[in-house]
Design a protein that fits this description.
alpha/beta; elongated; Rossmann fold; 15 helices; 15 strands; 430 residues; seven-stranded mixed beta sheet
């Protein structure tokens, strides 16, 4: 292992990076997972304050009691340390003004979580039901318990939950240019002076980690390590799904609400459709395709500009609504279909991808882009428009989608429209 990185190096490295700001969304119930007592305070103490202050219900789950901090301890000493660390966590939460957050203790063995990951995942899955925000240690953090806790959370989180991870041992065991650090998924939370004071008070409660062990071992959190957690920022990593969004997720949304994204009434949606229409370079198109048509709000707009339009969606109830909306238009064919399998062969004059491509994993997105290029005639247009935020079911955000489209050698960008909420590109097939 290389020598520890001092905080001054990290400060310089973080200052040089243009990291996105972490934004609290309309979360209601958060699940925060820690491998050991103090992980949550060190990694995301300031974020916990924000969640609590915003009235978000926070459930804190401790996978272990942290009894194995000093490996040479006797069983009796480990048992005593477990009791101490439980008490310290409660005192830390009180010191931070988080007295409403009471920990759930799973009691799994410290330094042995990887052997109990299945059990941990199962227990977290029960606790994660109905949560829309899940936080856990970074799955690649250089501590096996942190890795196990992070991976278990990702496996247990509901499909509609936003998942984020927080690094802990990264700061003193890795170098800022380490290739494993996912800077492209990193966000920065700025801490106020009050946040820093509350976090400092919380860390101070963990006396067992700040002082030498029972045989004079070095403290777990010596001053050089603590310096990483005294800075005025916290870093979290977005942990997106690794596979394409499952169709049953969208079926569930449509079963609960016939218009789950309010495409018929929301001004964002209405205005975005008008911009899509205005951005189409040609007055009229021959053959066009609209994958993921939903309930047909954009389909009706496109139908006015196309001689023939194929619209498809994987959700049968949405397809039925689109068929009804387009029932007077013989030029519109509406089917049940999914990407990339049901993209038709060419030649097509226009493809329109609206709020869909970020739901595809790497394999499906690559296949969809290649199939799109293959079915477009030379001079044909591909219009992509996507929300710039990151849907919880999506393996990527809209900006990543558009970067990949713009990088394709067979597509030439014609039109770019960028706003805070969404971005739009029209590309032409060479």
């Amino acid at each position: 292992m290389s020598s520890p990185v001092v905080e001054d190096e990290w400060q310089a490295a973080l200052a040089a990076r243009d990291l996105r700001a972490f934004r609290l969304q309309d979360f209601s119930r958060a699940l925060v997972v820690a491998a050991h007592p103090d992980d949550e305070t060190l990694g995301v103490g300031g974020l916990l304050h924000r969640l609590h202050d915003d009235g978000i219900e926070v459930t804190l789950v401790l996978a272990t009691d942290g009894e194995g901090a000093f490996p040479d301890s006797t069983p009796a000493e480990k048992s005593q340390l477990a009791e101490t660390r439980r008490r310290e966590l409660n005192e830390s939460l009180d010191a931070q003004g988080l007295d409403a957050v009471r920990p759930v203790w799973l009691g799994l063995p410290d330094s042995g979580l990887s052997r109990h990951r299945r059990e941990l995942t199962e227990r977290l899955a029960e606790l994660a039901k109905g949560r829309d925000l899940c936080l856990a240690p970074w799955p690649d953090d250089p501590h096996p318990d942190h890795q196990a806790a992070g991976l278990a959370m990702l496996a247990a989180a509901p499909v509609g939950a936003h998942c984020w991870s927080y690094p802990i041992w990264l700061w003193h065991r890795l170098h800022p240019d380490d290739a494993s650090i996912p800077w492209d998924r990193a966000c920065r939370l700025r801490l106020s002076e009050t946040d820093r004071q509350r976090k400092s008070a919380g860390i101070a409660a963990f006396a067992s980690q700040l002082t030498p062990g029972p045989r004079g071992e070095e403290p777990i959190l010596p001053p050089a390590v603590l310096a990483h957690f005294e800075r005025d920022t916290e870093i979290v990593f977005r942990e997106p799904p690794r596979t394409s969004a499952p169709e049953h997720r969208f079926a569930e949304l449509y079963a609960r609400d016939a218009d789950p994204w309010r495409v018929s009434t929301d001004w964002y949606e209405i205005r975005r459709r008008a911009i899509v229409s205005a951005a189409l370079p040609a007055r009229r198109y021959g053959c066009a395709v609209e994958p993921a048509c939903g309930i047909g709000a954009l389909t009706l707009v496109l139908a006015q500009r196309c001689d023939r339009l194929l619209a498809f969606d994987p959700i049968a109830s949405a397809v039925e609504r689109t068929r009804f909306a387009c029932s007077g238009r013989s030029s519109v064919d509406v089917r049940v279909g999914s990407l990339p399998a049901d993209l038709p062969p060419g030649p097509q004059d226009l493809l329109v991808y609206s709020e869909i491509l970020y739901y595809l994993d790497d394999r499906d997105l690559t296949a969809t882009i290649e199939a799109s290029v293959a079915c477009l005639r030379p001079g044909g247009h591909l219009l992509a428009v996507h929300w710039r935020s990151w849907p919880p079911e999506a393996p990527r955000d809209g900006e990543d989608v558009h970067r990949r489209l713009l990088a394709h050698p067979a597509l030439t960008p014609l039109i770019e429209h960028v706003e805070d909420e969404f971005l739009l590109h029209v590309l032409e097939r060479r």
